[in-house]
Design goal:
It contains 9 helices and 35 strands. By secondary structure, it is an alpha+beta fold. It folds into 3 domains: about 240 residues, Immunoglobulin-like, CATH 2.60.40; about 170 residues, C8orf32 fold; about 210 residues, Jelly Rolls. Strand 12 and strand 13 form a beta hairpin. Helix 4 runs antiparallel to helix 6.
Length: about 675
């Protein structure tokens, strides 16, 4: 064989061996060498405070002693702490679930910290006594612990297993997170009679994605009580699927992000159906929204009480609705009663923890209990009402394709009068009738109705937040510059201000305004209108006096305290969308009489710019005369959602606004 051909074959063989070596990561818990602390061969963001060297998970089925199969999830993770900013990575938690009958078991938990001291690896193991359990909800608990001896340069490792009987909840896997990751791997081995739908998301590609048939053996033991146990063995094949991502960049939290959960690279699973073989009966689990709605309405922890007589609320409802002359008036009275008299204990709940009767008696409950109670009370008064389930912005998107109930975390009420539907949330004490919290505007929601479980979209693009501010400055009879400030806030800003006043006071709000102005401005005659009219926006007003007479030059920003000081979009690159809570239209007008003895030396130039043609606009118009300066600033965004490819133009747009709104009027004293 010619030498060149031999060399070529050796090169191909060597490349193939390299490919095999890269297919598996040779890394094990407790096997940390001094060389493992050196990451110079890897390329990653130098600004990262930690890197994940490896994150490897595996889920497989195994027979249990209950006559069925259990899931065994295993995970191993190795992280290097680069700076003290990543010490939080040493605080670990593992969520385990229960359904009241069965609970997941945390097994074989090991964790260690490794430090390189004088060229040697020193291990500090986690003490079992340092593992604590917190009860999150009736169905969730958190096992939490902190790895000891962590400092900049440490390597930490965590390894554990979770055994679960909840085969409908095959664990999802996040390939991406807040730190760069060199190797993220997940393998799932599924018996042939379980059929899952895999749902992928994220913009990162798999380095490895394989699926193959493997031999499988399952031994199921059914306790026989006083008799012998029944034992069944299954031999056959299973499907082993494996996914690997390499050198995954961190996904950082940016302004105007609902939740990173919507954008990280991730895979999750939903049980579609169970069928032992082709001749056996098929048991569907995913179903459709008609089936899902029916199940929810028959569920004692959701809608079962809605169709009951609920006579225990009759007397109270007679008092609440006394004097009402229409169904709409009844609806408003019942809504206000629940909103003003009940306390929400948990704003993240799809199901009830207590009966509606108990919630009514205790005058508190989670968001599901309060709004299902509102629905039941409206139905009691013959008002058409149905619950709506949704996922809040901080919880992530719900699936439009499948009825994946795990993705929903909130319940509101839809009530109908004549041909109009009103959307109500009585869990928020400062929310007006037919208003929802901004956090509810997260896309697809579902009305739970057996006949018509229709889709309802609550999109942030449908919310319009308008704000109008007027500033007028004149010269009083003594020649002092005095002014008035009036601002009609948008509804969401009004809600936030009501919340601040509830926690602090009206006086504290104006004290903050005075502090922001400093000693050059004195405010007085402060007022807030419509504070307790929860359906209406708030109007805030005050008078002020400028204390700059006598200066040779006066530099004055006509935006007062209303302008944008910083660009909220600082990152040069953004990989996921900008998700603003609403569209916006902010109008600001300013009129100022020139102080006696001064002349206008300089004013900002007028400007008008558009954002991507028709997506928004900014105008900054200035007029001046011998005795007056007038300015008008308007920012309008016609949509709230901007995909990544529109980020640069949005960033430049706000950068220009910040620059323009920081410009000053210059007045010069006459000689």
């Amino acid at each position: 064989m010619p030498i060149k051909l031999k060399l070529l074959l050796l090169a191909v063989l060597f490349a193939g061996l390299q490919g095999i070596a890269q297919d598996k990561l040779n890394i094990k818990f407790g096997k940390v060498s001094p060389e493992d602390f050196d990451l110079s061969k890897h390329s990653f963001d130098t600004g990262a405070s930690a890197v994940i060297i490896a994150d490897i998970g595996n889920t497989a089925f195994e027979g249990n002693n209950k006559g069925s199969l259990s899931l065994l999830f295993k995970r191993f993770e190795r992280i290097k702490i680069l700076t003290k900013d990543a010490f939080e990575a040493a605080n670990q938690s593992i969520i385990v679930y229960n359904d009241g009958y069965s609970e997941e078991k945390l097994l074989d938990l090991k964790a260690s910290t490794y430090n390189l001291e004088n060229g040697k690896v020193v291990e500090t193991k986690l003490d079992d006594k340092s593992i604590f359990t917190d009860k999150i909800t009736k169905y969730e608990s958190r096992k939490k612990f902190t790895l000891p001896g962590v400092k900049a340069g440490s390597i930490i490792e965590i390894s554990y297993s979770v055994r679960s009987d909840f085969y409908r909840h095959l664990r999802a896997w996040n390939f991406q997170g807040e730190y760069p990751c060199f190797w993220s791997e997940y393998e799932v081995t599924i018996p042939p009679f379980y059929h899952y739908v895999a749902l992928n998301q994220g913009d990162q590609n798999f380095s490895i994605s394989t699926s193959k048939q493997v031999g499988a053996n399952y031994t199921l033991r059914e306790p026989g009580g006083t008799g012998r146990d029944d034992i069944v063995n299954f031999n056959g094949t299973a499907t082993a699927s494996r996914w690997v991502m390499k050198d995954v960049p961190a996904l950082k939290q940016e302004p105007y992000t609902t939740t990173l959960r919507n954008h990280i690279s991730r895979i999750e699973f939903q049980l579609h159906y169970f069928q032992f073989d082709e001749t056996s009966e098929r048991h569907d689990y995913m179903g459709n929204w008609f089936i899902a709605s029916e199940k929810l309405l028959d569920n004692e922890n959701f809608g079962k009480a809605l169709d009951e007589d609920n006579h225990w609320m009759s007397e109270d409802l007679r008092s609440i609705t006394s004097g009402c002359k229409s169904s709409l008036e009844k609806m408003k009275k019942i809504y206000a009663y629940v909103r003003d008299n009940f306390t929400c204990t948990d704003h993240d709940a799809l199901y009830t923890d207590n009966s509606l009767k108990t919630a009514f008696k205790k005058k508190n409950g989670n968001v599901a209990e309060i709004n299902l109670l509102l629905t039941a009370m409206l139905r009691h008064e013959k008002i058409e009402a149905d619950p709506i389930v949704l996922s809040t912005r901080d919880n992530g998107y719900a699936s439009e394709t499948y009825p994946l109930m795990e993705r929903f975390n909130y319940v509101i009420c839809a009530a109908k009068d004549s041909d109009r539907t009103y959307y109500l949330d009585a869990s928020e004490p400062l929310l007006g009738f037919d208003h929802l919290p901004v956090d509810c505007y997260n896309g697809m929601a579902r009305m739970i109705n057996k006949e018509k479980p229709y889709v309802k979209y609550f999109d942030s693009d449908s919310l319009k937040e308008q704000k109008m501010t007027q500033v007028l400055i004149i010269n009083d009879e003594k020649g002092h510059s005095v002014g008035s400030f009036q601002s009609l806030l948008g509804y969401d800003e009004s809600y936030d201000l009501r919340e601040r006043i509830r926690k602090k006071s009206t006086g504290a709000i104006f004290s903050d305004i005075q502090t922001n102005f400093g000693s050059d401005v004195k405010i007085e005659n402060t007022a807030i209108d419509s504070l307790n009219k929860l359906e209406e926006p708030i109007k805030i007003s005050y008078d002020f006096t400028l204390k700059n007479e006598g200066d040779e030059m006066i530099y004055f920003n006509p935006m007062m305290s209303e302008g944008y000081k910083d660009n909220p979009f600082k990152s040069a690159v953004r990989k996921y969308p900008v998700e603003m809570p609403y569209c916006m239209d902010e109008l600001y007008t300013f009129s100022m009489e020139i102080p006696n003895g001064y002349t206008v030396e300089e004013v900002p130039k007028s400007a008008r710019v558009a954002l991507n043609e028709n997506q928004g606009m900014f105008e900054y118009l200035v007029q001046k005369s011998d005795d007056k300066v007038m300015m008008r600033s308007r920012i309008r965004l016609n949509k709230a959602y901007f995909p990544p490819e529109e980020y640069n133009s949005l960033r430049d747009f706000f950068g220009y606004i910040v620059k323009k709104q920081s410009e000053q009027v210059v007045l010069k004293k006459k000689k």
